[in-house]
Amino acid sequence: MTQQPLLKKLDEAIERIRFLEKENEEAVARIKTLDSETRELHRLVALAESKADEILKPALSSAASKGSPEAPSTAKSGKGLQDLMQDGPGAAQADTRRRSP
Asked: 28-38, pLDDT tens digit by residue?
C-alpha cells in the first residue's frame, strides 16, 4: 500500500517532465523562428538603407556642388537605420521623445 502514493507521485513527475519538455521544444522552435525573422529584418534594413543612400546621393552631391553649407551636416547628423536597430527599440523611442515638443 505504501507504494501506491509513491507510484502516483512518480507518474505525476513524469507527466510534468513531459509537459516541460514539450514547452521547451516549442520555445526553442519559437526562438529559431524569431532569430530567422530578425536576420531577415536586418537584411531588409540594410537594403533600405542602401537604397536610401542611392536616392539621396545625387541630391547631396548637387547640394554640395552648389556650396550649400547644410548638405554635409545633414548627411552626418542623423543616425543610420542600422545604428537605430543595434541600439534597440528603447533607445529609438527615447531619441524620438527627445525631439518631440
From this structure: 999 999 999 99
Residues contacting 71, CB < 8 A, separation 6+? 60, 63, 64
Closest CA to 98 of 79, 73, 72: 79
Which residue type does 39 have? R
The C-alpha atoms of residue 95 and residue 79 are separated, in whole angstroms, by: 10
For the stretch 50-66, pLDDT in tens is: 999 988 888 777 777 77
The crossing angle, in degrees rounded to 10, of helices 3-65 and 70-77 is 180
* Residue for grid cell 527615447: 94
Look-up: residue for cell 505525476?
12
- The whole-angstrom separation of Cα 82 and Cα 85 is 5
CA angle 20, 21, 22 (to 5 degrees): 90
